[in-house]
Amino acid sequence: MPSHQSSSYDPNRSLAPLLRSPSTSTLGSPSTRSSISNTSPTPSIRRKARILRSIAFVSSILGALCAGSITVFSLYGHLFQSRLHYTQLQINGIASAMSMSMYIPVPVIGYMCDRVGPAPLSLFSSILLGGGYGLAAGLYHKGASEVDDGQKGAGTTFAPMVFAFVAIGVGTSAMYLSAITTCAKNFGKGKYRGLMLVAPIASFGFSGMLLSQFGSRILYERQADGSKGDVNVFYFFLFLCILLAVVGFIGTFTLRIIGEEDLIDEAVEELERSGLLEGSEFFRRRSERGYGTIDQTMSDDEDAGILDPAKDDESDDEDDNARLKKTWLLNAETRRFLSDPTMWWFAVGFWLIIGPGEAFMNNLGTVIGTLYTPTTESQPTSAATHVSIMAAVSTVARLLAASISDFLSPTPQSQHAQLGGASPLPLLRQKFSISRVTLFLAAGLILSLGTLVLASGAVQEHGGRFWIVSGSVGAGYGAVFSLTPIIITIIWGVENFGTNFGIVALTPALGSVMWGLIYSAVYQAGARNSPPLVGGSANDDNVFCYGKKCYSSAFWAMTVSVWLGALMVLWAWKGKNGWAKKGIVI
Fold first, then answer.
1. Which long-range contacts (CB under 8 A, 24 or more apart) does 344-348 make?
2. Could you tell me which of 457, 462, 560, 471 has the C-alpha nearest to residue 518?
């Protein structure tokens, strides 16, 4: 039996061995507690770790492929207008509520994901997404029946429909964040960590194309002449209800962080080398309680194993210490993240760039509807076509941006936070490189090209040119959204990724709502000022708008917003006390 007598604390001794978790320590929720380590000396344990990590990766991809259902709102959003008689402002109210509920809870969801693991969040998403789409299906059926019975307006369905899409937004956030956090932490090391992180992000974008094509080609309405019509919204919602409930439930058992104990230990050692542990109240309290004795007993414990029942109490203390250490580390990294001025420049720039992209995706269907009047003989392009174009181009852009980031961008050897300083961290590669910030800025400019072309009126009465808009916005949006989490992990580390990314990802909610309202106001003003249609009433109660006046001024403002956001990110990189001045490898 090892001695348990207290020993005096020597401040000159290294903190790393004092803080290193035993191999049997448990961290987080039961879903993430494991003594399985990637660096275990036992081949069978390493093999099991690889298998579990692979299963978690596949489950993450599956979850992200389904979570992207929120991106196909434009596939059926215009049908809320024509079938349920919602106004454009009401439709944007639903889209804005969905976007806000997807982004606003992200800091809390990320915080919980870091501390209890991704599996409980997957179960939470299963309940919300299944229930949300199930409720939306029932409300759509009810609303269509009310319109058929001669009722005008949104009737009794609008308020509960908003509630349903709030549940869908929160559920999407939980499923998506659990997927990317799993990949970020399981594959934080290695040459291709950017690609492994972006895999679920790209799947999220690709799911828009898959689901929109499935809905428009399989779950469609039949016209009176037997031809294919719009998506059958009722059946489409029922399909999503069942699919997402099942996928979220599967993730409850398969999403898992492998070797989290090692991740926390390495992060603590990194902080120790930086000198930031000196004076820590947490470690001072531990040392005053005789915490230094752990260093003496650790080697004996490892030699003796856990076969001696007399060590149960000591093991419980070590487990408590591991949990406290994890909590202290994550809280400290959150404080450092929030106190970093460059993070705020980056977050605001991300908000100004991504907001117009969000608003365009939510309103793509109604924008297409403004290109031609009902009396025009030309056949306008379809929303389903451009949802698919955006999804496909966005997926390619995400993967391409991540690949360039992995192969051509400088990468530090450490997966933990870069603390800055005179000397940059050693690099994995020393050759020609392109900064990830340069890629980010290029992506923002590509997005602005799409909004600029639309604002200029170049596609008015020329729906065949609309692919330029949807392709540019899709490419820029996808690349920006893939590079953002990569930049966060490279600068601020992976151990607190869920919380850090959640804080930054809160900003698109504001951008989506702001630009959605601006576009709606411009659209409604255009509808009120539209002349009566030939042979019809005064524009169907001023619900529909046709012409350049319905969108041009809104998209000019969006273009300027993207350019301003790019300047802010450039300042975070090259400005006073920016990343370049601090020697941060990015």
1. 345/568, 345/569, 345/571, 345/572, 345/575, 346/487, 346/504, 346/568, 346/569, 346/572, 347/503, 347/504, 347/507, 348/507, 348/565, 348/568
2. 560
Name the H helices within 5-42: 15-19
Contacts 24+ apart (CB under 8 A), 184-190: 184/485, 184/489, 184/494, 184/497, 185/257, 185/260, 185/263, 185/494, 185/495, 185/497, 186/53, 186/56, 186/57, 186/257, 186/258, 187/53, 187/57, 188/263, 188/415, 188/489, 188/494, 189/415
Measured distance CA(438)–CA(332) in Å, rounded: 30
Phi then psi dihedrals of residue 228, to 5 deg: -80, 135
Cα 139 to Cα 161: distance, rounded to the nearest angstrom: 7
Exposed/middle/buried for 540, CB within 10 Å: 0-12, 13-18, 19+?
middle
Write down the pLDDT at residue 21: 40
Q: Which two tokens stand for residue 561?
A: 């917003």
Task: Compute the distance between CA of residue 233 and CA of residue 153 in angstroms, rounded to an integer.
Answer: 18
Which tokens belong to 128? Answer: 């919300």
- Helix residue ranges per DSSP H, 83-157: 88-103, 106-116, 118-148
Q: Are 18 and 7 in contact (CB under 8 A)?
A: no
Tens of pLDDT, residue by residue over 340-387, are 999 999 999 999 999 999 889 888 888 998 998 777 766 678 887 888
Identify the CA nearest to 84 among candidates 230, 194, 228.
Answer: 230
Query: CATH 1.20.1250.20 region(s) of the chain?
Result: 46-258+340-372+383-581
Whether the CB-CB separation of 248 and 125 falls below 8 Å is answered with yes
* Residue 116 CB coordination number (10 Å): 15
Residues of the chain with pLDDT below 50 are 1-35, 279, 284, 286-287, 289-307, 310-311, 422-425, 428-430, 535-540
Largest CA distance in the chain: 97
Residues 436 and 438: their CA atoms lie apart, in Å, by: 5
CATH superfamily for 46-258+340-372+383-581 is MFS general substrate transporter like domains (1.20.1250.20)
Residues 6+ apart with CB under 8 A from 347: 503, 504, 507
Task: Supply 77's token pair.
Answer: 């959003």
**pTM to 2 decimals?**
0.77
Task: Confirm if 551 and 544 have CB atoms less than 8 A apart.
Answer: no
| Cα 13–chain centre separation | 42
What are 231's strand-pairing partners? 220
